Amino acid sequence: MLEKSRLFTIPFHRSFADALVEGLIKRYDDPMTLAQGLILLPNNRSIRAITEAFVRQSSSGLLLPRMVPVGDPLLDDRLGAFLDPVDMIDPLPPAIPPLERHFRLTRLVKKVMQKQGRTIAVPEAHRLAEELALTLDQLMAAEIDPEQLTQLIDPMAEEELARHWQASLKLLECIITEWPEELKKTGQIESQERRNRLLDRLADRWQTQPPSEKPIIAAGAITGSPVSARLLRVISEMEDGLVVLPGLDNNMSDEEWQLLGPHERDPDTGIKQPSLESHPQFQLKLLLDRMGVDRKEVIEWDPPKNYHPDNREQAIRHVMAPARYTDRWRSLPEKERAFPNLSVIETAHPEEEAQVIALALREAVEEKGQTAALVTPDRALAIRVSALLKRFGIDADDSAGRPLSLTPPGLLLLDLVSLAADHFSAVSFLAIAKHPLVAFGEDRDLWRDHIRSLDMILRGPLLRNGLAGITAKIKEAVDHQTADPELLEWWEKTKIPFQALDQQFQTVLPLTKIVKILRETANQIAGEKIWAEAAGHLAADLIAEIESLAADHNEDMRFSDFAHVLRQLMDKQAVRPMTGGHPRIFIWGLIEARLQHADLMIAASLNETVWPPIKEADPWLAPRIRSELGLPGLELRIGIAAHDFSSVLGAKKILLTRARRDARAPTMPSRFWLRLEAMASNLHHADNLPYWARQLDEPQGFRPVTRPAPNPPVLDRPKRIAVTRFDSLQSDPYSYYASNILGLRKLDPVDAEPTAAWRGSLIHSILENWVKEDNSRIGKLKPRALAFLESINAHIIQKTLWLPRLLQAIDWIEGEVQKNAAEGRTILDVEREGRSQINGIELFGFVDRIDRMGDGSLAIVDYKTGTPPSAAAVKNGDMLQLVLLGLLIEHNGIKDIKGQVSAFEYWSMAQDLKKKTAGYSRSVLGSGKNALLPEDFLNMAEERFIRVTNDYLHNQTPFTARPHRGKKLYDDYVQLMRFDEWRSNPQSKPAQN
């Protein structure tokens, strides 16, 4: 016997899907009766939840009723096709497809803004079009005709708006005037408008002609547009109709219920009391008001036998009470504010939070038959937890899937567009070359070998734009015999598919051409693999749809613009696996958790701006305008999130988690978390889980590392040393050992900032050519520098940034050389190599410049792009590179260069702090009474050279890491020597091995 009431609710402490299905099976003993029925649900995800509940509840098998999605609070899902039968007398026009709508609205936004004399970037136009689509949907869902917008707004009130809101409103008025005409051109209507008409027709038809499907059940709605409310009202009045709402609080006091709103304007003051849209019951009250139904008409759905209402419902009601009633918390009895089987965990950061959640889910698997679900709106956390669960061999069933932009096909397409947008930077190209889908038909191992060789070559400063920069870099490596000529042959074939991108990356192109180039390039470098499986199919459909739309609604843009647009479109496309994951471990979004429970519910990311979400401003309508139009306020999403949180609190066992800081800054606890802490007594903090999570990766013990001091045999020690490496040998022997004995070199990053070595090489080449080819003629250095800078394979930005300083420096150099010439000092030679045997060790190096002084002696000049060593450092014997070059001359180590060295100078291109210009010189001999005599300087250097080489190259002295505290040259080997592990212990003794 069916009850008289057709309106029901399932309280929070019962799983909506399971309770609904269990009740339906009991109500309709004949399986065929239920199979002939129709269940209207909010969205496609709800259908999945109800289907799985039928599977759980019908152990012997069951023919399922038809299930159709008829609405969604965020307007994301489409209606079932059955609502638009082919025999309809007055068929409705087709709805405009979402992507076509997006492109046409974008074009309209740009057109209207151009009419108003305003410019807008392509990515911004697409963003505004997306927001405009949402605003139009909300207007139509609320049955506000967009064309009547100007009549619904008081012209006087508009003048009170801020200027940016006035501009947005005027722009919106122009757009909504032209948009209906745009749709008429193609005979289409808005999908939301079509939905409204279909539901109205359905409601009218069912009032006079009941459907053949019986029973009719509308379930799971927590929000409702006016047209949805009318349909639910019709269903509730049908003999075979049932309406089942989730989480309606029938025991809430009438005073609190009426306070929620919406409220009418005060006839005397004209003031409208604001609604409490952030309350979890507000949307249900609004729905009942629109249905014209009193809350008392709604009864609980099929309560179990011997059923006693759980105190959990009272606790949920109290914790979500409107702010004016929270003072009652202090007087509540213990049982009405307690949440048994609820634990909370605060972690230091999101990584730890993910570890804790993964461990809790893994623990749930140990209990036979127990199910567990992570519920979070934070997709980054969900993806992180999913990855951590694989550590335990668990592939969680993630209902939300993964954005297309994060799948291999999506990433490759985005990388290709970014390659053109970034003007073929080495980083962008290597990202594509290393992509798992790319191999150009080669054996994968052979392809990796080529890419690794290319990676080594491309390290260093940014190259010139386009494929030409990469080609020139490879040729340079082959010419210098640092790369195999076979690599160049391979590259000439490999670059062919990228030539279309290379030729057009700086050009404004029609979108049709951009998409065609992208598709063809992807096909050539990845083949059919890029379009395979679920992600590939979705990517292929998206590219095909964009290409088709571009042919009819074309727009011009650059690849850099399309990079933003494509990512924006891909982010909205979710790729879901073809098969489910673990049968008992789930990752749910808020929509899924709204209608079902697991034995353990983990609500995560309970931080403000995440759960609940941040109140994002509508760029088109000011908050007051939205209120005047009757649109929901910006707190609508908070109220829905509050209802979802209440649903989680109704589970049997609950774990709430949050991280005290995110990647950027400390976080603020969710308002729901703070309410729970303030009201509930003795919340259980599950501190054991964070401890266990940390123990997973905690080392079993800690053995303090000692200062490394490798001690190879004398026979394995070098018998030659460069002047540039001697200072490393004496100040940090371990670094010398790592570089000159182990042969380890720090790799430059790809597309790195210009290094001192790069700038030094540049200035050395310019000055060498000026001396050798121009004979140091005044007036020739600047043209020589400009020509050389133009010829090198470097990015235009780096050339441009370095040019002003370079020109200042060469002007100073030219002036100094001219002044020196007037005093009888001339340039003798540049870039001369020298080598000589000293103490049985071959000392070798290059002298940047050798000058002949007026008295016949020699001066050694070393060019620096940065700050040169101080005279004190040289006098202490710490920086001896320059004097060792003089020692080579003294030992006749440089052919045809004879004479006594009387000057040692650094010529720096750095800023002269006194003159505020680039370029100054510094003598390492010092000046005044503290000046060193050249012969004393040379003798000191030779004695130091003999002592150091005796210690480290002739004898078996350990190459100790940083033996002299406070002295260091480079940090290239800090990680290798594990410096941070032993430096805090000054008593650490060198280890010898």
Automatic annotation (TrEMBL):
It holds the Pfam family PDDEXK_1. It comes from the Bacteria. Residues 721-948 form the PD-(D/E)XK endonuclease-like domain. Gene3D superfamilies: 3.90.320.10. SUPFAM superfamilies: P-loop containing nucleoside triphosphate hydrolases, Restriction endonuclease-like. This is Double-strand break repair protein AddB. It comes from Zymomonas mobilis subsp. mobilis (strain ATCC 10988 / DSM 424 / LMG 404 / NCIMB 8938 / NRRL B-806 / ZM1).
